[in-house]
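Field reference: sequence -> structure
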Amino acid sequence: MSTDPAPVSPREDEVIRLVAQGFSAKEIGRLLGTAPRTVERHIDNAKRKLDARNTSHLVARAFRLGILRPPVEASSAVVNDKRFPRLGLGRLSSLLSLCTASITYSPLGDLPLVL
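Structure field:
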């Protein structure tokens, strides 16, 4: 394994964050408006860049390298479940938590990161 992994693209970063929250390629594709195969390609590219053997290892490496940070609790905002009828409120709550964490934390420290 390389000691200095290649940086991931903004889209790969976004996909890694959603994978870390437990979303499938099909669900991520639906959220991002892209085909599941395209999402799988982003996952494969990120695995190659971070020298990860599988998706679980990808998430672990992303945490270790500071690409991902533990999510903060989601705010008590009301989520409109009609936008994502097949995902359910549990997954939407996870997505809200992910977005909150993405805005709060940044791999660069004090710079805000907005998805």
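Note: The CA atoms of residues 99 and 115 lie 7 Å apart.
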